[in-house]
Structures are given as structure tokens and as C-alpha cells.
Amino acid sequence: MRIQLENAGLSFGERVALHPLSLELTEHRIGVIGLNGSGKTSFARLIAGLAKSTRGKILIDGLDWAEDGDALRGRIGFIFQNPGHQIILPVIEDDVALGLKSRGVKGPEVSRRVGAVLQRFGIEDLARRRPHELSGGQLQLAALAAVTVTEPDLLLFDEPTNQLDLRNRAIVKDTIGDLAEQAIVVSHDLDLVAGFERVLVFHEGRIVFDGWGHEAIRFYCELVGC
Fold first, then answer.
1. Same domain (yes/no): 68, 163
2. What is the dihedral sign for C-alpha 215, 216, 219, 220?
């Protein structure tokens, strides 16, 4: 997927969340790092269509979010920082099936695709479990299953390892690394993005470095102290 920002920015009244920027993203794995309030989540939300740019354009494979939003929504999935907030049904397999049913998929095809995506992430045993019964890592995988069952081309993650223990962090990291889909990962977890093809460093609403993962982390640590 080709992502283009053309002088795109985001403001809330007098407060600038993201200064105008222009760039193109095509890499398979893209990391986004920066301090809290640096603009990284605003950047991801613009790409996902969860926020509307207050200037400039966001293009996805040549389609403008402002004009072609309906055509783009099914192609991009967003996994929120707290995945428990996006799992809305009381049983995991029902929640995973929800996206398919909303797109008109019916009958045995729903069951087949739900079963396949749960197997893909090794969480078949969670099918009849309730969200409050799951660990943080299991919630992340359940939310990922619910998003990927509709087969988006691009996945955006907002702090996917936040507040996870070491074991669950490793599971989520390995899962993201194995994804066939293109992924953009916003994270404070520098180890998670260290091997990525491209990492953007945000600071005070601007991109201050754009390069390979280890180089970006070295720059970031010199900037803020690690």
C-alpha cells in the first residue's frame, strides 16, 4: 500500500497536534516513536481515517481520504492502545464475527473465516472466552483477529505492548513480525521497532528523523535520553 501525505497537518483550535508534513510510505514495517504528545498517534489516526486533516491531503493508493473514505475504510485496520475497549461483544468469537456480518457475510462462511483467523493467531481456545477473563497479550491477539478477519491491507497499532509483561510482549512482537499485512506501529517500546525497515521519530508535532530502525532509535536516544 502506498501512503502519501501532502502538506497534511492536524490542529485543534489554536493547538497544533501535527505540523504540515509531506512524505510517502511504502515499506512493509514502519515504526513511529516519540515522546507523549509528539504527534505520533495523531499521525497514525490521520492515516487510518480516524481523524480528518485540517490542511493538506492524505492519499492511500492514490485515493483521497477526504473524497474516497468509503472505499478506503475496509482496507485499513486499527488496533487501539487498550484492545479491551474495541472488543464490544461478551464472547470473543462473536466479536470477531461482527465485522464480517456487518459486511454482509453470512452462514457457514462466517464460522469458517472466524475459525481460520483464530487458528492463525493460535487462540482457538479463546473462542468462547469473555474479554475480562483474558490476559493483556490475549486481548491484543483477540483484537487483532477481529480486525484482520475482514482482510485489510494495512494494520496500524497504537502501543501494542503497553503494560504487557515480558512474556506477552514477546508474543505480540513475534505476531507483528510474522504478519503478511503491511503494518505501522506506534510505540514507546524501542525493541519492538528496532529491526523495522523504516522508523519515523516525532518531536513536538514534527518528524525529526526518518530512517532505518536502529539508526532512528540511536537518534531518538540522543534527542531525549534513553
1. yes
2. negative
Distance CA(16)–CA(174), nearest Å, equals: 35
Predicted confidence (pLDDT) per residue in 30-45, tens digit: 999 999 999 999 999 9
The candidate with the shortest Cα–Cα distance to 80, out of 143, 136, 131, 169, is 143
Reported as a single tens digit per residue, the pLDDT across 79-136 is 999 988 899 999 999 999 999 999 999 999 999 999 999 999 999 999 999 999 999 9
Same domain, 58 and 106: no
CA distance 226 to 213: 15
The pTM for the full model equals: 0.94
**R_g over Cα of the chain:** 18
Q: What is the distance between the alpha carbons of residues 205 and 130, in angstroms, rounded to a whole number?
A: 39
Q: What is the CATH number of the domain that holds 201?
A: 3.40.50.300
Domain hosting residue 5, numbered range? 1-74+154-167+181-225
65 and 162 fall within a common domain: yes
Q: Does residue 176 sit within a domain?
A: no
* Cα 24 from Cα 5, distance rounded (Å): 6
